[in-house]
Specification:
Length: 586
C-alpha cells in the first residue's frame, strides 16, 4: 500500500498535463480558425498590397486654343524616376540612378501622397532609355510619364490664359481632397483658374505586381489618364501678338472686341511675364523679384490698374449734358483758352483758345472750357449717375478673375474720407476726367461699346466653345445683353457725330487717312508721377460697328500722339488682315 500514493500523484500530473496539452491545442485551433477564416480577408488584402501596387497616373489638362485653332496651352509628356515604397533604400537608389544617367541630380528626394518617392523628375528620353537598359540594378524603380503644361505663345497671352502651378494647402481645401491631391497642378490665374472645372483632366492608374525585392514582375492593368475638354477662346492670337508689338518697350494696354456679341479679340498688357517659367515653381528670391518689380508685370492692367481717364471721360459728360437738355443744336460756348471761376483760371489745353464752338465741335477739339461749363451746369451727381449707368464702378462680367473697379468720387465720400465739402473746382476737374476720378481701361472699353451699340452692352467674354474629348460641342457662349442705357436715339447720334469729327478734323487726326472711317476720342490724363498718360478709344465701321478698341500708353503724352498713332497702326492691321470680317458684317 505504501506505493499507492506516488502512483496517484503521477496519474494526477499526467492528467493535468493532458488537459494542458488539450487547452493549448484548442487555443491553437481556434486561433488558426480565427486567422484563416475570420481574418482571412484582412491578411489577404495585406498580402495583395505587398505584392500588388496601384500607381496613380497624372491627368493631362484640357487644350486651350484661339478662335482659329492656334494652340495657347497644352500638356506635353515628361518623365520621372519613381521608387516604390519599401523596395530599396532611396539614397542608394538615387546614387545608382545618378551613375546610370551620368549626371548629378540636384532636386531633393520627394515623397508622393501614395507613398512613392520621386528620385528624379524632368528626365530626358535618352535618360529613360539608359534606365531601361539597367533595370535589374534599380529594383523598385519605375519610369513614369507625367504631363507638363506649356504655353507656346509665352508672354503674349500670359494675362489672359494665365498659368498653372502645384496645388497649395489652401487650394486643396477649396477644391476638395477627394478630387485633388498634393501632386496635382491647378490654374493659378486667367482662363486656367476661371475654367479649372473644364480644364482638369481625368486621372488614370497602373496596377503592377512586384516580387519580394520590389522588382516589377508584370503590369496587371492600366487605365490611361485623359483630358476631358478643349476650350476655344474668342481671342485672335495674331491680333494679340500685333497689339503686344505695338506696346513694345512701353507700359500700357490695348483692348479689341466685337461690340455685337461681347467677344474679346485681344487684350494686351505690357509689361508681361513668361508663364512657362512659373509652371514648375520659382525660388522665393525669383518670386520676390517678380512681385517687387516696379513695372508690375504680373498686374493685368486692363482689369486691375487704375488711371485718370482724362478727356475720354468727356464722352460721359456729353451724354449727361444732352439728356439734361443743356446743349441744344444751336448753343455755342466761347473758349478764350481758360475758364475763370471764383477768381481762379482753369486752363484749356490750347492756350490760345478755340473760339466759339458748338457741342460736336467742342468734342472734336476736346475743348476743356466747354466741358468745364457743361460740368458745372450739370453738377457732380448727374455726371456720376451717367457714369454708373454706363457700367463704371461695377463688375463687367468678364470671365477672368481678379477684376478691379474704378472710383467715382462723391461729395459724401469726400466729406467722410478727406473731411472737406465738395467744391465747384472738384466738379470742374471731374468734367475733364481728372481730380479724384479713377477708371480701369476695361471700364472705358465697355463705355465705348455702349456708345457704338447705341446703349446696348453685351457681357464680355473670352470663352467661345467647349468641346469634349470626342470633339462634340457641349457648351457655347451665346451673346447675352448685360446692360441697356435708355437714351433718345438723337443723343447717341450727336455724340457719334462728334466722335467722327474727332478723327476727321479734331485731336484724332492721326487716324484720318485710314481706309475705313472710324469714330474715336483722345484723352490726355495728368499723371502726378511722370509724363501724362495717352488714351485713344473708338469703333468702326461707324454705321455698323464690328470693332471697339481702347489704347492706353502710360507716360505717352497727349492722346493725339502715341495712343492715336498706335491706334492707326492697329486699325490698318485689322483692315489688311481681317477685311473679311468688315465686308461680311458691314
Amino acid at each position: 500500500m505504501w506505493n499507492e500514493k506516488p502512483k496517484i500523484v503521477i496519474n494526477h500530473r499526467i492528467e493535468l498535463f493532458t488537459w494542458i496539452l488539450f487547452g493549448i491545442f484548442v487555443f491553437l485551433f481556434f486561433n488558426l480558425w480565427y486567422l484563416s477564416v475570420l481574418q482571412s480577408g484582412l491578411y489577404q488584402e495585406k498580402s495583395e498590397r505587398n505584392r500588388i501596387r496601384m500607381i496613380p497616373l497624372q491627368a493631362p489638362r484640357g487644350i486651350i486654343t484661339d478662335r482659329y485653332g492656334q494652340i495657347l496651352a497644352q500638356d506635353v509628356p515628361r518623365f520621372a524616376a519613381v521608387l516604390l515604397p519599401g523596395s530599396a533604400d532611396p539614397e542608394k537608389s538615387r546614387q545608382i540612378l545618378e551613375k546610370t544617367i551620368k549626371r548629378k541630380i540636384e532636386e531633393p528626394l520627394r515623397d508622393r501622397y501614395s507613398g512613392e518617392i520621386i528620385l528624379a523628375s524632368q528626365m530626358s528620353i535618352e535618360e529613360v532609355a539608359m534606365v531601361e537598359e539597367t533595370r535589374k540594378e534599380l529594383p523598385g524603380v519605375m519610369i513614369e510619364a507625367y504631363p507638363k503644361r506649356i504655353y507656346p505663345p509665352g508672354e503674349d497671352i500670359a494675362h489672359i490664359v494665365g498659368y498653372v502651378g502645384k496645388i497649395n494647402s489652401e487650394e486643396l481645401k477649396r477644391f476638395g481632397q477627394t478630387n485633388y491631391n498634393n501632386e496635382d497642378v491647378v490654374g493659378k490665374s486667367g482662363i486656367e483658374l476661371n475654367y479649372e472645372e473644364f480644364l482638369r483632366g481625368q486621372k488614370g492608374y497602373r496596377k503592377i505586381e512586384v516580387d519580394a525585392l520590389g522588382r516589377i514582375v508584370r503590369i496587371l492593368d492600366t487605365s490611361f489618364p485623359r483630358f476631358r475638354h478643349t476650350l476655344t477662346l474668342t481671342l485672335d492670337l495674331e491680333l494679340q501678338r500685333y497689339c503686344n508689338e505695338l506696346l513694345a518697350g512701353k507700359s500700357g494696354v490695348i483692348i479689341v472686341g466685337d461690340p455685337t456679341n461681347g467677344e474679346l479679340l485681344a487684350m494686351a498688357n505690357q509689361p508681361s511675364f513668361e508663364p512657362n517659367l512659373l509652371i514648375d515653381g520659382v525660388s522665393q528670391d525669383e518670386w520676390n523679384e517678380l512681385i517687387e518689380n516696379p513695372q508690375n508685370p504680373l498686374t493685368t492692367r486692363s482689369l486691375q490698374a487704375l488711371y485718370p481717364p482724362g478727356s475720354i471721360f468727356k464722352l460721359i459728360v456729353g451724354l449727361a449734358a444732352q439728356e439734361a437738355n443743356i446743349v441744344s443744336k444751336e448753343r455755342t460756348i466761347f473758349c478764350p483758352g481758360y475758364y475763370e471761376y471764383s477768381n481762379r483760371r482753369y486752363p484749356c489745353w490750347r492756350k490760345a483758345g478755340h473760339g466759339r464752338l458748338n457741342y460736336e465741335d467742342a468734342l472734336a477739339q476736346s475743348c476743356n472750357v466747354t466741358f468745364y461749363t457743361l460740368g458745372l451746369e450739370l453738377g457732380q451727381d448727374r455726371i456720376i449717375d451717367m457714369a454708373r449707368r454706363l457700367g463704371f464702378e461695377e463688375d463687367t462680367g468678364i470671365d477672368l478673375p481678379g477684376e478691379n473697379h474704378g472710383f467715382l468720387p462723391t461729395s459724401r465720400w469726400k466729406r467722410q474720407k478727406i473731411g472737406e465739402p465738395w467744391y465747384p473746382g472738384d466738379t470742374i476737374n471731374l468734367s475733364i476726367g481728372q481730380g479724384y476720378l479713377l477708371v480701369t481701361p476695361f471700364e472705358i472699353f465697355q463705355s465705348v461699346v455702349a456708345i457704338s451699340n447705341r446703349g446696348v452692352v453685351y457681357t464680355p467674354h473670352f470663352l467661345k466653345v467647349v468641346q469634349n474629348d470626342k470633339r462634340e460641342v457641349i457648351e457655347r457662349t451665346l451673346p447675352k445683353v448685360k446692360n441697356r442705357i435708355e437714351l433718345k436715339p438723337d443723343i447717341w447720334e450727336r455724340l457719334i457725330r462728334g466722335m467722327t469729327k474727332v478723327v476727321v478734323e479734331g485731336t484724332g487726326r492721326a487716324c484720318r487717312d485710314l481706309p475705313i472711317p472710324i469714330a474715336g476720342k483722345t484723352g490726355t490724363a495728368q499723371n502726378p508721377h511722370g509724363n501724362d498718360h495717352s488714351w485713344f478709344a473708338g469703333f468702326f465701321p461707324i454705321d455698323n460697328p464690328r470693332y471697339v478698341f481702347v489704347v492706353l500708353v502710360e507716360n505717352g503724352g497727349d492722346g493725339s500722339g502715341e495712343a492715336a498713332h498706335r491706334s492707326k497702326d492697329l486699325i490698318q492691321w485689322i483692315y489688311d488682315h481681317r477685311e473679311n470680317t468688315l465686308n461680311e458684317n458691314g
